[in-house]
Amino acid sequence: MRMSRWRSVCAASALALATSFATAHAGPEDDTLRAAMAEEILNLDYNYTTKREYIILAQLTDATLFNIDPETQEVNPSIATGYEWVDDMTLDVTLRDDVKFHDGSTLTPEDVAYTYNWIASPESESNATGVVERWLDNAEVTGPDTVRFHLKSVYPLVIRDMANRIMIRKDGTYNEGGEIDRDAMSSDLIGTGPYRVVSFEPGTELVLERFDDYFGEAPEIGNVVVRNIPDVGTQQAELMSGGIDWMFKVPLDLAESLGATPMASHLSGPDLRVGFLVLDAGGYTDPDGPLTNVLVRRAVNHALNTEEMAEFLIGGSAEAIHTACHPAQFGCDQAAVAYPYDPEKAKALLAEAGYPDGFPLELWAYRDKAAAEAIASDLTKVGIDVTLRYVKLESLNQARAAREIPAYFGTWGSGGTADTAAIARIHFSGQSDRDMSGDGDLAELVLSAEQTSDQEERKAIYSDAIGKIADEALWAPLFSYSANYLVSPELDFPLDPDGLPRLQNASWK
Description:
- The protein is of the alpha+beta class.
- The protein has three domains: 2-44 and 189-267 and 484-508, D-Maltodextrin-Binding Protein, domain 2; 66-178, Dipeptide-binding Protein, Domain 1 (Dipeptide-binding Protein, domain 1), CATH 3.90.76.10; 271-482, Roll (Dipeptide-binding Protein, domain 3).
- Helix content is 31%, strand content 22%.
- The protein is globular and about 70 Å long.
């Protein structure tokens, strides 16, 4: 009841505030979609950035060799028209001959080979280097429309990587004349995507216009303006006054209250981000610590009321999960064992493990404070003496790298990739400090899924891995996230199942 009254008050306040603005929504009139982002936009080159905001912008301004269909997860042609495996270590990619850069020049095989060789080179210091360095030896031009990729090792997921990350640049972009310039495309971006940069004021505003020579399907909206507006309240006021047409990462209460007025539409869609509790099963902080005992880890899982957390603390389309991956991801087998909320069962398992009075536990977290507090509360209720350390992400990362964290509440978005590989490699392959399982056999199993191109075999391997993680309770999976948007009532903004916002697919109603 109190929540309902709060939302009613918010709706009334929002409507009252809206009537104080005289400016009408102007988007359709000048065919300009105005979007707000709280995070500062400082670099337009996605080869040198990582955040979700930069992925959204890259979808507007750039193109990759292949695309992944968010509905089917099938790989489709983009700049490339197709590919052929010469052998397990050699891949030939055929290119379109009508791809134009935003400066009017035609893309060539030399541009593609240069881009991949540069990104794979240690001197590039690119944020995308990790995607290709594990498999790419070199790329070479083999014809007027073909590039050959020589691999370091067998890696069947090359096409998936090509569809997810590397943005093609003109030959010599980053080291023209022998001088390295990693910021060459940070402001004056020359891409191949559906929109070209008109102007960019870092941290303030980006102006884009539809690129008439784009090789793909042209977007319906002619112009996109992205404004940096750090304060959500200011974004709200701008939306109601017609200053912006789109905002994302909207707090659920605000999305529901303002969405209940005529001034905005609330859209809630899936997000591949999941929340989870990582437990020091490997004994990195204490070789004989309680969390090295599988009964204790199972008790932790039973102690957490994940359904209520998902419904009341995350909201929207969020759901409780029981696997160490998002249910929508390829290979995320939902047949894995689940631990339903059962505090009494948790207490019994703790007693069986030799901890009838619980034990002290330092729990780290860096986001979603209400959820972190709920986790701590649930664990406390079964007798675990929790000290919650709520810190900035950088501090958590440093402490985890130093192996000083026995348990932490983390999240992972998989970069919008609906494949268990995107979460399993990072957290269970033994190649990152995020892997606190200490399980070498599990790491070998996870990595083996990347050594076969047989999709059914990959699915079976991930099924085994996810099953093992669940059975050993190496994690306490919590919930999926929900993506909440507020948009102009005049804007049609489709939501994709992978949770990645694609502004290029928007249109006016």
